[in-house]
Fold each of these.
Amino acid sequence: EAGVVQSPRYKIIEKKQPVAFWCNPISGHNTLYWYLQNLGQGPELLIRYENEEAVDDSQLPKDRFSAERLKGVDSTLKIQPAELGDSAVYLCASSPRDRNEQYFGPGTRLTVT
Amino acid sequence: GENVEQHPSTLSVQEGDSAVIKCTYSDSASNYFPWYKQELGKRPQLIIDIRSNVGEKKDQRIAVTLNKTAKHFSLHITETQPEDSAVYFCAASGSGRNTPLVFGKGTRLSVIA
């Protein structure tokens, strides 16, 4: 079974530029999560999807961050414009319907210069 | 909301010794407690989890204990090996299905050969 796939693995951009991250969850997992992980910290939730519906986005900075999961499978997280403080690892995770176990992708390491 | 505290932040043990990492949580409604292992530059990997209807769970050299009354849970690794060196995160999630995880800040475990 393939795991959660994320791309790109690394991204370096200048501040004020836009950036997008892509995630493909484990096949059949209807719940998808985007987490932010700062260096030396645990992951923090940004947004959770149940199928194509965003059911928990209270921690997403909506002035610059947006996300979508149009067909209820893969998802895109976008930042526009990026700020220096956005440098972090962006992790995607998925879980099966009505189960708690979450499986993480390898993450995208974003560096904003 | 839920708050998870994790101790210690760093832990060094001699190969073959045991390692114990402790976490406390604040929300008495939380009922799912996973542990993740994250090696440098890699994804968090689920290594063991426990639900609130169980007090202890073992998987080979790894065990987790849960004290609901005191709202704390612990990870125990016996006969540690150099490959156990990594950052370990505890997490807790609430009573709803597919609810997001709230993570501790992590423990960096070093196993010295």
Amino acid sequence: SQQGEEDPQALSIQEGENATMNCSYKTSINNLQWYRQNSGRGLVHLILIRSNEREKHSGRLRVTLDTSKKSSSLLITASRAADTASYFCATSWGSNDYKLSFGAGTTVTVRA
Amino acid sequence: GAVVSQHPSWVICKSGTSVKIECRSLDFQATTMFWYRQFPKQSLMLMATSNEGSKATYEQGVEKDKFLINHASLTLSTLTVTSAHPEDSSFYICSARGGRGYTFGSGTRLTVV
């Protein structure tokens, strides 16, 4: 299975602090995406990083990709209570690159 | 932006009955739609992939006859859980792939009693 592993499983931080979560995967990928899911809701796309990219920024989000280690990290800076959610990485690969394989997710709680 | 409407958002049904979940892309044409199942505090598991006008492709271990998928148009896909049982209770999420990537529905909480 290509399904990635994410760590930590859960993260609790104070508002204003940074949150970092990691994702590892098993085989070569075409791209990697990060999604956010609020409790009981659908997924919201955050950012996509291609296999030939190493770092990408979007607002308070910073994503890195290390293809040699088959891992990615998502950093949320200056966290807010509204960032409380579960975060998932998703990869696509090979000829089935239209299919996404999701990691186990990291649940982030931002305390006010 | 791209919007996918999924409904119902929640449904309770009796064991043995069938339930239909709809997934609509509102402002774009979805070449492919996906159906996922998510158990509490777990990841999304892909159930099947559907393309408009053709039969859905099911992932290994997913029963085709239990989870009927119809993709009648470029904007609508439906998932019917047939003869539902309590173990089918779960959160079902659809996703539509269009020109701007993947857009997810808000999910359907199915409870079978």
Amino acid sequence: AQSVAQPEDQVNVAEGNPLTVKCTYSVSGNPYLFWYVQYPNRGLQFLLKYITGDNLVKGSYGFEAEFNKSQTSFHLKKPSALVSDSALYFCAVSPGGSARQLTFGSGTQLTVLP
Amino acid sequence: GAVVSQHPSRVICKSGTSVKIECRSLDFQATTMFWYRQFPKQSLMLMATSNEGSKATYEQGVEKDKFLINHASLTLSTLTVTSAHPEDSSFYICSALPSGLSGANVLTFGAGSRLTVL
């Protein structure tokens, strides 16, 4: 069975500083990796995905993530944080990309301080 | 882009009543939809897979008689929480797969429905 770990429940960063939200995964076979963002009382919005190819994936709103196979990690990054980036971020993994087998991490609350 | 609409966004009901939540794919057909439950500050847990024209597939531990799912058309799935109790209070989210596709990368999520049972 696959699993996703987001070791930090909360990440605080000052506006304008770089941010990193950590994610590690465990899955059999080729991992399809995703990041989603959730604003209060809203559903999930897709940010970016890794399927194959370049280890650095660029997504929406200036976010990017780096796939590291040896460390089984897929950390979300942004060079310069905005207050509007404050939200709940979920990492997710799916073996072979199956929608039914999409497994989410526990989420990381990002707070960007003005 | 693909849009999934959930209704209602918020609902408050009395204990013992039933509540229906709708999930609609607005600009695409979805043979398969998924229903998730999210507790405060926790992750999404898949409850069931809704299949158009056939019975839903429930995840282990989810009571199918409690959470009735109907997927009568290619654009609509409904989740009915029957005889709701306060412990059913939660945020329910649906997602939809465009017909003919199965990959997680093409899932579109609804905005969620917050159920509060008094």
Amino acid sequence: DAGVTQSPTHLIKTRGQQVTLRCSPKSGHDTVSWYQQALGQGPQFIFQYYEEEERQRGNFPDRFSGHQFPNYSSELNVNALLLGDSALYLCASSFSGRASTDTQYFGPGTRLTVL
Amino acid sequence: QKEVEQNSGPLSVPEGAIASLNCTYSDRGSQSFFWYRQYSGKSPELIMFIYSNGDKEDGRFTAQLNKASQYVSLLIRDSQPSDSATYLCAVTTGNQFYFGTGTSLTVIP
């Protein structure tokens, strides 16, 4: 049973560039949430996708956008990168039906460094 | 005020001892409570969840929830060096997960 997968593992970008991160949920899961985790901090909720729609969004600017595909996989896009966007980006999947707080399982993360 | 607060530690316990990790949350309407373990450089790994007041045991781990006092705790019995990690408390409020900053635990052989 495949768990949550993310790609790429590491990424180095420069300020102003754009980046796309990818996530495939655990088998049987239909909901994907994205988090940003800065060093020494807990994960901060970016947004959640269910049925190809953004269902919930945290306190992140519009530079952060996402998409969910019919196979439940998801992308996180960040435009106009800032130095402060350097972090570990985590994808978490769950099976939630109409609830959005079912147990979430995390992928290995993508480490983004902005120079 | 942060939604979820944890003592950042570090917390050190000798091997075989009980480690006690605590978490408080601000919203009385919070519905579900989770403990995750995160090794350095890795992603969070679910340890257990609890929804109702009282204790829930799973192997060496016991989660305790007290909604009236708005705290949730995690006890680790017979602590092992492999338990050394950061422990994250997560709370769901209004259909959203909120994480604490984590407590760093070191188990000394």
